[in-house]
């Protein structure tokens, strides 16, 4: 079972994670992790902090000579901006109450965790909330996802993400006619991570105008994964259904407020005969579908078609023309606090979305094929793929798990 925990504050010394459950012998490339971290910091509309941070990962356990050991993997990403916040984020006690009060955040921002977190955890200084609830934590989620992607890739599973809508402007490209390699190349080349270059200029202009207005923009990102074995997840219990788990993973990203799989909400407007994916079979391909309206998932399990999932990211709540708030001490109306922020982080969110979906898919792989070594895992996955293509094998009860 793949497990992980993240730790660290936005302006603390570092972000840390411990990952447990990876098989031994999985090749790990640090530069691939750093590449994903760099992509998270890119995208038109990001703020000044991206000029300060240059994220790189340090692996302090669980890898030797470029391969996992089967023991817990520890990743650390330093917060370079911490040098400017050492007194504010000091670990040691500050016995000067006037100094603490002067630095305290006491005007919560609408749309953030500030007020609710302060009430829940009895924090008098709302910085104690915003430091951990910050989207800075997603840097570590991306690092974890990059490790997961490396496992998926060597199992011939590919995954890609891109922005399909930003600020109300939708891309018009027909994604079904593009390979994942093509989608990746186009999205990586785009400053807003969109596949449709004809919409880029309009999106950039809207971001510029929104910044001048002191406002922010949200959008929609899509993740596609191909090459997944049939039967990841399960119909046997509600919490084993993979579509539910993928939705939770997507919704766990900061500021995500909606999710859909396949044709999603459009399915509600159509007849059943129009949205069920008809089944076909060839010896070379095995069982497959003639369409993919359901996004590669049926009954809580992968059906062999590409998994397609979209997430909705709300506009960033921190506004340079702040909304009304209330001082938690005086109870008087004030404008909310202003923290350094972006005009939009939707392009970066596509990188995070890809990472969390890759992590959840890796978890599902390791649940179905629970092997201690990567060699055994790969053999089991390949054997199962052959088994799932040949009805005679599973009808005769042939062992498919290697």
Automatic annotation (TrEMBL):
This is Chorismate synthase. Its cofactor is FMNH2. The keyword Secreted does not apply. It catalyses: 5-O-(1-carboxyvinyl)-3-phosphoshikimate = chorismate + phosphate. GO terms for cellular component: cytosol. Its EC number is 4.2.3.5. Homotetramer. SUPFAM superfamilies: Chorismate synthase, AroC. NADP(+) binds at residues 40, 46. Keywords: Amino-acid biosynthesis, Aromatic amino acid biosynthesis, FAD, Flavoprotein, FMN, Lyase, NADP. Residues 100-110 have a biased composition (Basic residues). Reduced FMN (FMNH(2)). Gene3D superfamilies: Chorismate synthase AroC (3.60.150.10). NCBIfam families: aroC, PRK05382.1.
């Amino acid at each position: 079972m793949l497990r992980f925990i993240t730790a660290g504050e936005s302006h603390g010394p570092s972000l840390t994670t411990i990952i447990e459950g990876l098989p031994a012998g999985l090749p790990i490339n640090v530069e691939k992790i750093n590449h994903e971290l760099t992509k998270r910091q890119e995208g038109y509309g990001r703020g000044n902090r991206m000029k300060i941070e240059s994220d790189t990962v340090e692996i302090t356990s669980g890898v030797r000579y470029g391969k996992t050991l089967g023991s817990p993997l520890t990743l650390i990403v330093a917060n370079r901006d911490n040098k400017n916040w050492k007194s504010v984020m000091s670990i040691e006690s500050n016995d000067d109450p006037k100094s603490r009060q002067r630095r305290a955040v006491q005007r919560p921002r609408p749309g953030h965790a500030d007020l609710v977190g302060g009430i829940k955890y009895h924090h008098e200084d709302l910085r104690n909330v915003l430091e951990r609830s910050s989207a800075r934590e997603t840097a570590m989620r991306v690092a974890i996802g990059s490790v997961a992607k490396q496992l998926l890739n060597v199992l011939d599973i590919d995954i890609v993400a891109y922005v399909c809508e930003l600020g109300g402007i939708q891309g018009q490209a027909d994604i079904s006619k593009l390979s994942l390699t093509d989608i990746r190349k186009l999205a990586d080349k785009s400053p807003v991570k969109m596949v449709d270059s004809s919409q880029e200029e309009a999106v950039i202009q809207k971001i510029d105008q929104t910044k001048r207005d002191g406002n922010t923009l949200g959008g929609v990102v899509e993740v596609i994964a191909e090459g997944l074995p049939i039967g990841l997840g399960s119909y046997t219990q509600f919490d084993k259904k993979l579509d539910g788990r993928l939705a939770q993973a997507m919704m766990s990203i900061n500021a995500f407020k909606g999710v859909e799989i396949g044709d999603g909400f459009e399915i509600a407007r159509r007849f059943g005969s129009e949205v069920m994916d008809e089944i076909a079979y060839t010896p070379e391909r095995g069982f497959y579908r003639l369409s993919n309206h359901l996004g590669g998932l049926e009954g809580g399990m992968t059906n062999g078609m590409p998994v397609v999932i979209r997430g909705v990211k709300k506009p960033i709540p921190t506004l340079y023309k702040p909304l009304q708030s209330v001082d938690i001490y005086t109870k008087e109306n004030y404008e909310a606090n202003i923290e350094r922020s972006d005009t939009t982080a939707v392009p970066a969110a596509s990188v995070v979305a890809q990472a969390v979906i890759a992590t959840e898919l890796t978890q599902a792989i390791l649940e179905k094929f629970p092997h201690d070594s990567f060699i055994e895992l790969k053999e089991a996955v390949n054997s199962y793929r052959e088994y799932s293509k040949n009805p005679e094998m599973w009808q005769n009860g042939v062992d498919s798990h290697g």
